[in-house]
Specification:
single chain; 166 residues; 4 helices; 33% strand; elongated
Length: 166
């Protein structure tokens, strides 16, 4: 067997307000609990509601994408708050048309057609992004990724004419 395995983690860039939102929600929850314990039991209701917000919504503010390359497939997982993992997508490289940096002229004909773009990158403009043109069940899609050099090398060994590095 000549299977290759490459793993790549890409932390999503958090918005400047996400830290502020977390601090405000935790502070409001603490204030509501303290006031409810001190004699205003009606404030247990907002404290419980804020606790539910902390449990269900705040983990969505910390997102990472994990790319796994194995046997001509790239699986993309979304990791929330470094605890919950959700499989987002599995890409079969036989259905890939090309993979090129987002600044490549190979992508010009696809970008002008207004094809749907799926973004699984960090969102940081300083990082080097690659766009994959993929023919899946939903037609042609542009998939934005940030693979590392080892993953690009493995993909290039499988389909060298579909990888562009310029």
């Amino acid at each position: 067997m000549n299977d290759s395995y490459v793993e790549c983690m890409v932390p999503r860039k958090s918005s400047p307000f996400s830290g502020l939102i977390k601090v405000l929600v935790y502070a409001l929850t603490a204030i509501c609990v303290l006031l409810a314990v001190m004699g205003l039991p009606i404030l247990f209701i907002p404290a419980i509601a804020l606790g539910l917000v902390i449990y269900f919504l705040l983990p969505g503010l910390s997102v990472e994408y994990e790319y796994l390359y194995l046997d001509k497939e790239i699986s993309i997982d979304k990791v929330l708050n470094k605890q919950k993992r959700k499989r987002v997508r599995v890409l079969d490289l036989n259905k890939m048309e090309l993979l090129a940096p987002d600044t490549s002229h190979e992508l010009d004909s696809y970008k002008s057609r207004r094809i749907k773009i799926q973004d699984y990158s960090s969102g940081n403009p300083e990082n080097k992004k690659h766009i994959m043109v993929y023919n899946g069940g939903n037609g042609t899609e542009l998939i934005c990724l940030e693979p590392n050099a080892a993953m690009i090398k493995c993909i290039k060994t499988v389909s060298p004419r579909k990888i562009f590095e310029y």
